[in-house]
Design goal:
The protein has 4 helices and no strands. With 104 residues, the protein is mostly helical. It has one domain.
Amino acid sequence: MTNVVVDVLLGLAVAAELVCCLGVVVMRTTADRLHYAGAGTTLGPLFVLVALLLREGFAAPGLQAVAAVGLLFVSGPLVVHALARAIRRIDVGTLEPLPEDEAP
């Protein structure tokens, strides 16, 4: 039974990553593409982590996977934020809000 659950989780991980890759290819703006690239660092790795923990438990490979996915969860949003700031600076020239950016 565990093998079936592991296979389903790995299939979900692949599907999640495919959706993220498709979103990066299909979206028109760089900011929209960045959203999909950032999403690729969350759900897919989480499914892989759960599958690995079901198969290996909390032995050395499981703990290493927890550390790797934890690092990915922490660093992923930081990288996306830094890239979004760089995109804003390149596209607009400043990080300050423009009059048309503010809500009415």
